[in-house]
Amino acid sequence: MPLSRRALLSTATAAAFAAATAPAVAATRSRPRATAVRHIPLQGAVNVRDLGGYPTYTGGRVRHGLVYRADALSKLTDSDVTTLAGLRLGRAVDFRIPLEVQYDGADRLPAGVVAVSRPVTDNGLFGQLLAAIGSRDPVRQEQMLGGGRAAAFMNEVYRSFVTSAANRAQLGLTLRELAGLGSTPSLYHCTSGKDRTGWTSYLLLTALGVPEATAVGDYMASNTFRAAYDAKVREGLKQGGLMQNPDLIIPLQEVRTEYLNTALDEVRTGYGSLFRYLTDGLGLELRTLSRLQDRLVD
Length: 298
Prior knowledge:
By secondary structure, the protein is α/β, with parallel strands linked by helices. It contains 13 helices and six strands.
């Protein structure tokens, strides 16, 4: 008797992860291929993208217009809100912690979009950055961020995506919801749209069977879309007398394959494979992974 499409997807998902996860961890150490990304230009946010359009190993393609990734939406203009309204979003999931929301403000969303607060800890990154900048002390800033310490801090943030039970619960819930939203588009974001959002997008694309280099390319694209804005922030810190050497914060502003590899190495250590991290760590059942395929892949 022929297998149903769902059964085929379940079998293919399990087989693909079992065969490809270990090589995938190593593959991120090579330079990712350039891939096309569907960027949504806004005035008050710089890293808003449609995750659709990527090809999968099975010959399919991730559907456009169903899942969006973004940076903070608190500074959107009226025109930006109108643009978002055109996406017909049903919900916007905010990974920011309360300190970030307090500092930057709540999301500006079109009428009818359900705002979901789902904090994923940044391991103290935002507070650390505010403390360093607010000190106005170049010696203290060097002590906090120089000598590779900023990059080391970022690696710990990524490690916590895997080791923190609270983080795993929030990420797992987000992916389960994406599997069950039918035709309703949704969006998730953090402050810069690059770390918590980047890791979630990497997991989702990989679960959908998008090739490793393509998933890494989507992750790394944050550097392209954030480059001009981040440079402007550094210049403002210098001109405002807050930092003599604002380049100290570049490791905090960027995404790097080093950071992604830290999380993937933690996955390998703790779970053996990305498939086991998704199922055992995030609590995703095989039928949930199959539903993600059904909903998000043509």
